[in-house]
Amino acid sequence: MTALLLLFDTVLLLTLLALAVAAVLSPEPRRAVILFIAFGLWLSLVWARLRAPDVALAEAAIGAGIGGALMLVAARRSARTGP
Prior knowledge:
Helix content: over 70%
Number of strands: 0
Number of helices: 3
Order of helices and strands: HHH
Shape: elongated
Radius of gyration: 15 Å
């Protein structure tokens, strides 16, 4: 493994961890969902880097795409109704 690939993998890992922590600790639901979508797309890059393109495509389409859209709708509806 070259130094450049090691640096790229390290950046992928640190960014993935930062997105996960930010999504979990976000007090605003809409922002948490957007961070979750970004996490899913970034995780797709990790799967592609691990040479699993089928898993990367499924993560991007299902995890970030469909799951994120459903959570955005739920966050919008819960913000409208309120506690």
